[in-house]
Design brief:
two-stranded antiparallel ribbon, mainly beta, single chain, 7 strands, 66 residues, three-stranded antiparallel sheet
């Protein structure tokens, strides 16, 4: 599948309307670092953990920044 990844965009503060590309993670596939048709993302309040609904692989993938 095309674009089976999570792209991270940031802005300098909450009032800014300018977003900048920051990073991406994941690639197409079924392994630990892969997605197949990711459908939704939830990020923790401290922005260190992301839960990704990976519908093509029938799982919730959890990514944590150390």
């Amino acid at each position: 599948a095309v674009n089976s990844r999570i792209a991270v965009w940031t802005r300098p503060d909450t009032s800014s309307t300018t977003w900048s590309y920051s990073a991406q993670f994941g690639t197409d596939g079924s392994g630990d670092s892969n997605f197949s048709n990711p459908q939704g993302v939830v990020v923790s309040a401290d922005a260190r953990t992301a839960w990704v609904a990976d519908s093509g692989n029938n799982r919730i993938a959890i990514w944590t920044q150390s």
